[in-house]
Amino acid sequence: MFSKWLVVVVDAVVLMVVCRGMKELFRCQITVHQECYGAKHVKYLNSWVSRVCETFDVERKCCLFLVKGGALKPTNVEMLWVHVICAWFRSQVVFQNHEVVKPAVGILKIYPNSFVKTCVICKQSRGSCITCYKCATYFHVMYASSVRYI
């Protein structure tokens, strides 16, 4: 029988937690590094709930990647959320509180033309793309991460 929660431990240090959500059907099951997501002071690992699942009745998606789910954090713009990794790779965006990694500030400073570029990985121009620092290749941060471009 599998545990209802997962904790990855290395050298007695908890590295990751899995969201257990408030309702069985609505939990997101997202796995995050505690420090990266701002959850490093979680006391009861088997009951940790992500920011997204705190109010599971509201659908949230990344304002840069246009995909719901994942390690999302609120921005300083009402109703806008962003993936932590999408925010990290934007020089215009910073997390106002580094301890809890929220809110993401500077979303509205992202260049509008980044939303019309075509991603070389998914071949779509939905969402915002960044460019390679060595060439003129454009890609979505989430896809670039999954294929190890970044």
TrEMBL record:
Single GO BP term: regulation of transcription by RNA polymerase II
Alphabetical UniProt keywords: Metal-binding, Signal, Zinc, Zinc-finger
Superkingdom of origin organism: Eukaryota
GO molecular function: zinc ion binding
Pfam families to which the protein is assigned, alphabetical: zf-HC5HC2H_2
GO (cellular component) term, any one: nucleus
Protein name per the record: PHD-type domain-containing protein
Organism ancestry: Eukaryota, Viridiplantae, Streptophyta, Embryophyta, Tracheophyta
